[in-house]
Design goal:
66% of the residues lie in helices and 10% in strands. By secondary structure, the chain is an alpha+beta fold. Residues 245-382 form the Peptidase C51 domain. Residues 44-99, 142-236 form a coiled coil.
Length: 382
């Protein structure tokens, strides 16, 4: 009989150890998941920032591309104007060359007439003409005609040569403008290539961001599942002890889970609720002076930094006080992160009533008749 009792006792003890070990395993898993969630959130945020930076670079490239296109369009306009000027010069040159040919033809005809008339002797012209003035007038006219034609030819040749030089200048200008246009087109093509690369990089970065976000959501689901088991175990222990849940409400305003709050804690966690309670309800300034290390177990270590930052005189004590923050350093029931709550009442039997968040699945709770030492080492801050 005694042997059976010892066997039953051993089994019960072993079962309790297994339950405790299972519970601790769940806490460790949740802590690991919490760290993974934070890390993947950071990675997702980094990718978001990177995508934002790349978007800025893309906008800058698009601006440069648009500006370069404006330059190309302007150069196209200048090239067209220059070509029109060249065409006009060519037209005038051709017109002058036509005039030159006519003048040269007229000159040739005049020279031929002069030559023909020179075959007649002056004496013959003199005696054959009825009037001496007629001979003089005819000779003068031929000489004047020759001089005039010669002068016109020289003017036309000079004007044509000037037009040809102007045409060459315009050709050089067109070549220069075409060269500038080609340079700008090459520059624009390079910019477009860079933009395409940036677009690909941005899409890849956004895809990486989404993969991290998807992983965060998956980890959150796993954490919710494990947390539900932890909260279920807490409720079992709560029902089996002297503690009780009150039916009060908090007024805590944040509905999203694990979003940054104004005091650098995560919403709907015990730390965010305690910081909100002090800052909003009590008007006592308190913030996370150790980002990344603001776990509930570290709150006693943040007293000095908060005093320095806000000119306060908070202190750490072992004696409870209404409105004080109670900080547990961590146990199998509070997890390795610890837990904080607000002291709402001090009972005659030495227990306290606390208000808190996330003792039960990201919810507000008001626990009565709590024995602080049941949850490991603790301290009060006020």
């Amino acid at each position: 009989m005694a042997g059976s009792f010892i066997g039953i006792l051993t089994f019960a003890t072993s079962f309790a150890l297994v339950k405790a070990q299972d519970y601790n395993d769940m806490l460790n898993q949740r802590n690991t998941l919490s760290r993974d969630i934070i890390r993947n959130k950071q990675l997702a945020d980094e990718k978001k920032k990177e995508a934002t930076r790349i978007s800025g670079e893309i906008k800058s490239l698009e601006k440069d591309i648009s500006s370069t296109q404006s330059k190309i369009d302007s150069l196209d306009g200048q090239i067209n104007d220059t070509r029109n000027q060249i065409d006009e010069k060519i037209r005038i040159i051709r017109e002058k060359e036509s005039d030159l040919k006519k003048q040269q033809s007229d000159q040739a005809e005049a020279l031929r007439a002069i030559y023909e008339s020179s075959d007649e002797s002056f004496v013959y012209l003199l005696f054959s003409s009825s009037d001496l003035s007629e001979v003089i007038d005819r000779t003068s006219y031929m000489e004047a005609l020759e001089v005039k034609i010669d002068s016109n030819v020289k003017k036309i040749i000079k004007l044509r040569d000037q037009l040809l030089k102007e045409k060459e200048v315009l050709n050089s200008k067109e070549a220069e403008l075409s060269g500038l246009k080609k340079e700008n087109e090459t520059y624009q093509n390079n910019l477009s290539h860079q933009k395409n690369q940036k677009d690909d990089l941005k899409n890849m970065t956004l895809a990486q961001q989404k993969s991290y976000q998807d992983l965060v959501e998956k980890l959150k689901q796993e954490m919710t599942s494990i947390s539900a088991k932890i909260y279920e175990e807490r409720q079992k222990r709560l029902k089996g002890g002297k503690e009780a849940l009150g039916s009060r409400s908090s007024g805590y305003p944040y509905s999203s889970i694990d979003s940054p709050d104004p005091w650098s804690f995560l919403t709907r966690e015990c730390t965010s609720y305690a910081a909100w309670y002090w800052n909003v309800l009590l008007g006592k300034e308190w913030t996370n002076t150790q980002p990344g290390q603001g776990d509930a177990r570290n709150w006693a270590n943040m007293v000095s930094a908060n005093n320095q930052e806000f000119g306060a005189s908070y202190r750490v004590s072992n004696t409870p006080q209404i409105g004080a923050i109670i900080s547990w350093s961590g146990s199998s029931l509070t997890s390795s992160h610890g837990h904080v709550a607000i002291v709402e009442a001090i009972n005659q039997d030495g227990t306290i009533d606390v208000s808190e968040y996330n003792w039960l699945a990201y919810q507000y709770s008001y626990r009565q008749f709590v024995t602080p030492s049941d949850y490991g080492n603790y301290s009060y801050i006020y």
